[in-house]
Write a sequence for this structure.
């Protein structure tokens, strides 16, 4: 499984953007303390899940796996987080940004086909 440094940077930026999308949605949905809790809690939950459940030996993630999971489960987790981020943008009235984000995610996974195939075999 080869990892192009540019693709790894894109992946990292997508991860950060997904967290920002979740925070933005939480912030726009409620006022007061609930808005703060969602804006902080949703990205925190997503980042905990992202960092905790991993496939041992995944070089795109430093190879460590605090909680080892099968590749298909990791792929589903990534797609759920990215999909949730796109949905959050769309639901918050940012349809164009949601579409652009989704397109970049799809292109990223297409370029990372070797990693996707590796995950499906693990």
């Amino acid at each position: 499984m080869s990892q192009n440094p540019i693709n790894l940077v894109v992946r990292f930026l997508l991860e950060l953007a997904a967290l920002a999308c979740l925070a933005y949605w939480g912030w726009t949905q409620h006022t007061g303390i609930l808005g703060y809790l969602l804006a902080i809690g949703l990205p925190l939950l997503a980042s905990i899940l992202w960092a905790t459940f991993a496939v041992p030996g995944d070089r795109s993630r430093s190879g460590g796996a605090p909680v080892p999971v099968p590749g298909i489960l990791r792929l589903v987790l990534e797609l759920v987080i990215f999909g949730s981020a796109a949905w959050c943008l769309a639901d918050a009235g940012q349809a164009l940004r949601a579409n652009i984000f989704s397109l970049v995610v799809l292109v990223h996974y297409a370029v990372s086909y070797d990693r996707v195939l590796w995950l499906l075999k693990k």
In short: The first strand starts at residue 53 and ends at 54. Helices lie at 5-29, 32-52, 71-91, 95-111, 113-121.
